[in-house]
Design brief:
Layout (H helix, E strand, L loop, with lengths): L1 E8 L6 E8 L9 H9 L6 H19 L7 H12 L5 H8 L3 H13 L3 E5 L7 E5 L1 H22 L4 H19 L1
Antiparallel strand pairs: 1-2, 3-4
Length: about 180
């Protein structure tokens, strides 16, 4: 039976401890010295994509907590805003605005229509297509949410000095633009 030491970082102290995990009947993996060296120094908290994902989930949790009474997600809020700003969007255009796939948008639209937050109307140009409009209940949700949402966005950025907040947002946009190019 072989065993592999695993380094664990304590959440509270930051200290590193070793833990051995037995692998019954498994041969020790063969790694090059270069990869072993990389893995010995590797810290997940130094991986940009990991930190961005953690920040994303933490921000979504804060949103869910703040707006639990509204039963709305950040994506649904973005959908209501996009439809308010561009009344008559079709689902494909909405997917492009939100950078989401069409199936995800179709399911979300179905839920928002069922909750009477948006309306789906036949397009006069193409009866097979639908245009999306903000419903009165959707406008009421935005009315209740948007001021508090701005405060939440500011709270998320408060970890940074005021002078760095705009710079940080600019850097995030640069990263997104580069990755999407």
């Amino acid at each position: 039976m072989s065993s592999t030491p695993i380094k664990r970082r304590s959440r509270t102290s930051g200290a590193t401890r070793k833990r051995t995990v037995a692998r019954p009947g498994k041969a020790e993996p063969t790694l090059t010295p270069e990869v072993r060296s990389i893995l010995d120094r590797f810290r997940l908290d130094d991986v940009v994509s990991h930190l961005l994902r953690r920040a994303h989930f933490a921000a979504e949790e804060k949103f869910a907590s703040e707006f639990a009474d509204e039963r709305i997600t950040p994506r649904q809020k973005a959908t209501l805003i996009a439809i308010y700003q561009s009344p008559g969007l079709n689902q494909n255009m909405l997917a492009g605005h939100l950078f989401l796939d069409r199936n995800t948008v179709a399911e979300m639209v179905k839920r928002l229509v069922a909750r009477r937050l948006i309306e789906r109307r036949s397009s006069p140009e193409d009866r097979r297509a639908y245009k999306l409009f903000l419903a009165p209940d959707g406008a009421a949700v935005l009315d209740r949410v948007m001021v508090r949402d701005g405060a939440l966005e500011r709270a998320i950025l408060q970890a940074l000095p005021k002078a760095d907040q705009k710079r940080f947002m600019g850097y995030l946009r640069q990263i997104v633009d580069t990755l999407e190019a």
